[in-house]
Amino acid sequence: MLLEIASSITGSNQEMSDDQLMEIVYRGLKLRRFLIVIDDIWSTEAWDQMQRIFPNDDNRSRILLTTRLKYVADYVSCPDFPPHSKSFLSPDDSWNLFTEKLFKKDQCPPLLVEIGKHIVQQCQGLPLSIVVVAGLLGKMDLTHDNWKKVEENLNSFFGTVSERCQSILSLSYNYLPQYLRACFLYIGGFPEDREINVSKLIRLWIAEQFIKARSNERLEVVAEEYLQELIDRSLILTGKQRANGRIETCKIHDLLRQLCLSAVHTENIVYYMYGDVLVSLLEVIHDQRRVIGLHKHEEKQVYHPTYINDITIQAA
């Protein structure tokens, strides 16, 4: 970022030390009115270092930050400019973003509107997913037949979308403290599009010993703090709330659930098994700590593990 700003000031891409770049940026912006946009900042320490290079001349200059972490947003905000939380896009806003990315200033051909809206609907209002979908569709001829094939094979198509998004979403997991990782991955064991009862989830976390005891605090209270931290990190969504403001249910976006499914293979915490595959895999992981996400398959058969140390999440 420093190099980009310094280059815009000097017109040169010459390599320099960080201290030299900081001085160039500071001197170049001094007494000038500027707007700086910093995308995806991950720590308060990073902000403390960066803000030193921007002069404060009280001339209505602005610095716009984006972050996935609520505590970072709270830290850098001020009373006149509180943090602005972005929600998922509405169907209309989703469609507008999609057409803007794919067609620029042109209109979507009328023959593609109905199919296009159905495809965009699968993004569930997530801007990242919508942008990726627009990019993928932009690589094929914009014909009704091509889009119809995509509509008829949405699972395959959105598998590709998910892969493109994972490299970006995985940053959220990589920056997750160790004590929260097991709790987050555990949520991936619940079925898609399911509102998860928070009381049940907390009991399961505690049973699995994912919650670290603190002096003078009940495990249930600590678990609620863990859940709130996952929400503040934009990894878990709030569902229903009780009259007293406490969270009754939570849920996870499909793309983040896919992130869980890909991460569990390296963490040895959660195993998702379907049908009779469960039996053979249980034999393989007999000596490992595990949580089993147990789902009914098409024949509605349910396989019950025989090991009493397993925690089973059974899909309804």
Can you give a write-up of this model?
The chain has 316 residues and is mainly α. The protein has three domains: 2-76, no CATH class; 91-171; 176-314, Arc Repressor Mutant, subunit A, CATH 1.10.10. It has helices at 2-10, 18-29, 44-51, 70-76, 91-103, 110-121, 127-137, 144-152, 154-174, 178-187, 198-207, 219-232, 254-267, 277-284, and strands spanning 35-38, 62-65, 196-197, 237-238, 249-251, 270-274, 291-295, 311-314. The strands form three sheets. It has a three-stranded antiparallel sheet with strand order 3-5-4. The chain has a three-stranded parallel sheet with strand order 6-7-8. A two-stranded parallel ribbon has the order 1-2. Helix 1 packs across helix 2. One of its GO terms (cellular component) is cytoplasm. It holds the Pfam family NB-ARC. One of its GO terms (molecular function) is ADP binding. Residues 12-107 form the NB-ARC domain.
